[in-house]
Amino acid sequence: MSLKGFTQADFDVFTIDGLEERMKAIQTQIQPTFKQLGDTLTNDLAILLGNEMYLHIAKHARRKVNPPKDTWMAVCHDKRGYKKHPHFQLGLFDDHLFIWFALIYEAPNKSSIASALLEDLDLFSTLPTDFVISLDHMKKDATAIGDKNADDLKADLVRLRDVKKAEFLVGRHLKPNDPLLKDGQTLVEFTKETYEQLLPIYQKAMQHS
């Protein structure tokens, strides 16, 4: 079975008014694609890492009024949940697709992970210049890694170490009209290649989590 990619209609889901209506579209339109792509990527990461990895698809269960502005799938070593651990994401806002290595605010060992990354900034120097860094998974904002110098990166990681609610995500953004998105297999290969480039950071994080 060929893998399905994403079209403009998938990004347009985030223009649907109402929690129930938008959630129904996410569940019927986007989540089946997450399941397909996610199963493949989870298996690929398990092979690369040499241990079991598990797919988690965002349920948005806590939302009672406001419809989600984005949705995502995550891959993690823990079958029970991903938020407390270093993990990988793939997801959509209305104006871009994101592919992340993510440390979000629920991770209890962010401080020790940040300290380890601060001692090994070379892990970031090999990343392509089209990679971006975000400091909040709930916001669209991201800065190209090519626009950050060593001091900027240090400041981001010091914040991750010292601020309880701080987050750190690094990866890639793709625009809705990017041809890569149309073909699921091409998108999987691009995402896998992105994850492979992030593996040294993930592995360093796991050693200290």
From TrEMBL:
Origin: domain of life: Bacteria
Coiled coil regions, renumbered to chain: none
InterPro entries assigned: UPF0637 (IPR009403), UPF0637_domain_sf (IPR053707)
One Pfam family matching this protein: DUF1054
Family membership: Belongs to the UPF0637 family.
Name of the molecule in the record: UPF0637 protein ACFFH4_06810
